[in-house]
């Protein structure tokens, strides 16, 4: 069997990202006729992709949506070359309706000729449900008001009615605010994902054409597509941090040591025009926090500070022991007590009060177009809150900004934070046998192929029951590498049953979203190893090696 070359393997990885994106992607001719669709969209509508090819996108819409497409959508698309966030109802194969938010953009060649239309679809079922709930709440409030005018109620009854109306109005307001947040997130995600997937798809298309011609000089196209894919992964990680859904692994951390070790890389990152100074407190308490995420937070703040000093300036990172009293704690809805503070101060342009009030909002940014996603501070805010800490900004226009991170103090005996695994390839041997359990066939095939590239002995299973049989038949298996989210038996249930029968078996979990199987209260369960999806070849190899070598 011919061994696939590097270009083909990378092409498969990038195609898998496109096929299983969290939104539907279509390519269509100018008249709306579909020429390409990803698996996500095909799964949503219940059609085979072969059936979708050749259909017109507008023919998948309900009657009103089809009329709107032909009278408004298509003409406006031709006029300005794009169409953002139009609400359309897509009719599935079983005749059910999927509320959707649709974005479209034209793609032209070098001569200006229209090649095709790229259409992005987001499932808006939750949004439609919130709109209905808000409408019902408004109608209920209007009906209650009318009844109150018509009825001659006693004073006590009128007061009770007024309180009830106010509660309903407040609930309607919360729903409206929730809708505004959903709309803001959807718009930001649509914008950034469209840009990132354009890079991925363009790189894939050029890579495919060059390989078809037998041209192996495809490195720049692979690099472009990989860069787009990596940026998409980082966007997803920032969204998880903002929503406080990232799995954290808190350990005992010496913040002074962390800042000292980061100083050199920060100086290289910030450049020669920024003077970096560290002020480290003596007798600093240990913090209880995820070390890798805190490092990312400090780097995020330092880069923001650098951008606020385009002409150069000074940046100070300070540590201190702090006590937040009851009055401050009640005011900021946090727990009173002792905290370890890490502060980042710059001498830059500062913020106005209105900008400071919006600083933690997702996709809010004062930077120019293409210079930031607006998720940096919201990611830091989400991480700190998920860690049980507190974040505070102090800023004055033209006098700089200070961002203070307060982290919970660790009490009792402590173990040092685990050292992050370097992203470098680490090979194994055929005597080290790994069982890979994954219900997605494409992901399973790629992971098995990568592990065999690393010289490991590899066995595979597509569900928990099959994995248990393989474990019984092959006692030489040293590592169970399993997805967390699987039907019938999830990865945690599989690992528990496998460890009962094979106590020496090592376990490594992988998942794109952990739910509650191995993460509770936002924290990774003790002694649990996790490799988040998607992972690069180097991340996979180093994590596998680290788990196999662990005690």
UniProtKB/TrEMBL annotation:
- This protein's UniProt keywords: Coiled coil, Phosphoprotein
Q: Which residues form the Response regulatory domain?
A: 433-548
Substrates-to-products reaction catalysed: ATP + protein L-histidine = ADP + protein N-phospho-L-histidine
Short name of any one Pfam family annotated for the protein? HisKA
- Write out the coiled-coil annotation as residue ranges: 127-179
Protein name (record): histidine kinase
From which source organism is this entry? Bauldia litoralis
Q: Which GO terms describe its molecular function?
A: phosphorelay sensor kinase activity
Xref: SUPFAM superfamilies? ATPase domain of HSP90 chaperone/DNA topoisomerase II/histidine kinase, CheY-like, Homodimeric domain of signal transducing histidine kinase, PYP-like sensor domain (PAS domain)
């Amino acid at each position: 069997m011919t061994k696939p070359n590097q270009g083909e393997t990378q092409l498969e990885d990038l195609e898998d990202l496109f096929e299983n994106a969290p939104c539907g992607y279509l390519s269509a001719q100018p008249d709306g006729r579909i020429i390409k669709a990803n698996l996500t969209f095909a799964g949503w509508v219940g059609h085979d992709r072969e059936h979708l090819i050749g259909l017109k996108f507008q023919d998948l819409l309900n009657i009103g949506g089809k009329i709107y497409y032909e009278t408004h959508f298509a003409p406006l698309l031709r006029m300005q070359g794009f169409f953002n966030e139009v609400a359309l109802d897509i009719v599935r194969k079983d005749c059910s309706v999927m509320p959707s938010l649709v974005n479209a953009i034209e793609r032209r060649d070098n001569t200006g000729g229209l090649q095709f239309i790229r259409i992005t679809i987001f499932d808006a079922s939750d949004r439609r449900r919130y709109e209905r709930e808000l409408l019902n709440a408004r109608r209920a409030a209007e009906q209650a008001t009318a009844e109150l005018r018509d009825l001659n109620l006693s004073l006590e009854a009128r007061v009770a009615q007024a309180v009830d109306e106010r509660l309903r109005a407040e609930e309607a307001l919360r729903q409206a605010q929730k809708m505004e947040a959903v709309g803001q997130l959807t718009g930001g995600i649509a914008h950034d994902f469209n840009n990132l997937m354009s890079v991925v798809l363009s790189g894939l298309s050029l890579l495919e054409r060059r390989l078809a011609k037998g041209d192996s000089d495809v490195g720049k196209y692979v690099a472009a597509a990989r860069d787009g894919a990596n940026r998409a992964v980082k966007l997803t990680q920032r969204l998880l941090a903002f929503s406080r859904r990232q799995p954290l692994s808190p350990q005992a951390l010496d913040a002074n040591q962390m800042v000292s070790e980061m100083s050199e890389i920060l100086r290289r990152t910030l450049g020669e025009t920024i003077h970096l100074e560290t002020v480290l407190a003596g007798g600093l308490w240990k913090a209880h926090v995820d070390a890798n995420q805190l490092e990312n937070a400090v780097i995020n703040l330092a880069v923001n500070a650098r951008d606020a000093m385009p002409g150069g300036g000074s940046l100070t990172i300070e540590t201190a022991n702090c006590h937040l009293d009851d009055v401050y704690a009640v005011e900021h809805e946090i727990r009173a007590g002792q905290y370890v503070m890490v502060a980042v101060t710059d001498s830059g342009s500062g913020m106005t009060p209105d900008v400071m009030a919006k600083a933690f909002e997702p996709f809010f940014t004062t930077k120019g177009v293409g210079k930031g996603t607006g998720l940096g501070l919201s990611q830091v805010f989400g991480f700190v809150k998920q860690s049980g800490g507190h974040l505070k900004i102090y800023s004055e226009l033209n006098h700089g900004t200070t961002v203070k991170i307060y982290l919970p103090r660790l009490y009792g005996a402590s173990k040092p934070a685990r050292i992050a695994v370097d992203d470098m390839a680490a090979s194994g041997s055929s005597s080290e046998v790994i069982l890979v359990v994954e219900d997605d066939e494409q992901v399973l095939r790629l992971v098995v192929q990568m592990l065999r590239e690393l010289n490991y002995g590899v066995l595979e299973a597509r569900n928990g029951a099959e994995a248990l049989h393989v474990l019984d038949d092959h006692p030489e298996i040293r590592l169970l590498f399993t997805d967390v989210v699987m039907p019938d038996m999830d990865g945690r249930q599989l690992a528990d049953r496998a460890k009962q029968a094979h106590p020496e078996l090592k376990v490594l979990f992988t998942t794109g979203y952990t739910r509650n199987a191995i993460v509770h209260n936002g924290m990774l369960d003790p002694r649990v190893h996790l490799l988040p999806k998607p992972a690069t070849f180097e991340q996979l190899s180093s994590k596998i090696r680290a788990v196999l070598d662990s005690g």
